[in-house]
User: Which sequence fits this backbone?
């Protein structure tokens, strides 16, 4: 992993502190995991709603409805998953609504080839990011490990993979954009002469 020793220690301390205050969501580990995933789905749905409604786009998250969640929790664990099917509850709910070949999938589609192609195509930019990383400057990432993983043609499966690196690159990009534009353009004050003229005919 490319996290610095300082960041790893701070995260470990936060986890230990949280563990002392946290109570299980259910009596058994499996049900606890299900409820945790449901909460995460609701949290993400809320973020999407906030982002889309700010630009007047309608958002619906029917799978986060209480009735759907309760129905899923009522299913026996062995019926909610298996080695020869992918999301069987979802497939059963969508039966007759989506093409049959989609319901018969046994795995989830992925964009792995595109991800690795992107890393290769932007190797020069990533090299610059590794040398001038804001995460490294903040003591969050280890410079040598971050450079190694950004320039590595294949990501290790242990200690961090594409998902973790994608989050790291997203954070690095955000920090760089924040440094370049401390005040977002939409918050920049406009001078009176720059204001849009008022059409008095419509008043």
Assistant:
């Amino acid at each position: 992993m490319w996290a610095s020793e300082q960041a790893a220690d701070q995260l470990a301390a936060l986890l230990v502190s949280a563990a002392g205050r946290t109570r299980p969501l259910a009596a058994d580990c499996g049900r606890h995991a299900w409820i945790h995933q449901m909460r995460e789905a609701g949290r993400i749905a809320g973020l999407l709603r906030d982002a889309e409604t700010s630009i007047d786009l309608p958002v619906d998250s029917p799978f986060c409805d209480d009735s759907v969640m309760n129905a899923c929790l009522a299913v026996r664990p062995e019926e909610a998953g298996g080695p020869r099917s992918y999301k069987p509850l979802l497939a059963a709910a969508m039966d007759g609504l989506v093409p049959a070949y989609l319901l018969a999938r046994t795995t989830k589609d992925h964009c792995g080839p595109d991800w690795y192609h992107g890393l290769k195509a932007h190797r020069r930019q990533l090299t610059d990011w590794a040398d001038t990383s804001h995460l490294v400057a903040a003591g969050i990432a280890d410079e040598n490990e971050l450079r190694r993983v950004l320039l590595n043609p294949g990501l290790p499966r242990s200690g961090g993979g594409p998902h973790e690196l994608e989050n790291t690159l997203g954070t690095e990009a955000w920090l760089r954009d924040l440094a370049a534009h401390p005040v977002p353009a939409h918050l920049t004050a406009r001078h009176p002469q720059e204001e849009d003229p008022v059409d008095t005919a419509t008043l």
User: Anything to note?
Assistant: The mean pLDDT is 84. The CA atoms of residues 80 and 89 lie 6 Å apart. The longest helix spans residues 29-53. DSSP finds ten helices and no strands in the chain.
